[in-house]
Amino acid sequence: MIGYMTAKEKAKQWGVSDRMVQVWCGENMIDGVVKFGHTWAIPKDAKKPTRTGKLKPGRKPQVKPTS
How much is the pTM? Predict the structure, then answer.
């Protein structure tokens, strides 16, 4: 497909894991993604999502031990 990349190609470009890109696609964090069967098609000009800093429900923030 012209103008699109796979999750694996985009992961290499962004320096993250394939699975992270797949999660972002599944959570609609990347604009313009399309799923064909089991494969995500990501626009070549898509921007890498940024972290929101929010924790998932049930997760506790890490606390550094004090000495």
Answer: 0.72
Residue pointed to by tokens 């999750």: 7
pLDDT value, residue 7 = 94
- The 10s digit of each residue's pLDDT in 3-49 is 999 999 999 999 999 999 999 999 999 999 999 999 999 999 999 98
φ, ψ of residue 31 to 5 degrees: the values are: -70, 135
Structure-block tokens of residue 2: 């012209």
- Distances, alpha carbon 9 to alpha carbons 16, 18, 27, 38, 46, in Å: 10, 8, 19, 15, 12
Alpha-carbon Rg for the chain, nearest whole angstrom, is: 15
| Percent helix, strand and coil across the chain, each to the nearest 5 | 25, 15, 60
Q: Is 10 exposed, middle or buried, given 0-12, 13-18 or 19+ CB atoms closer than 10 A? A: buried
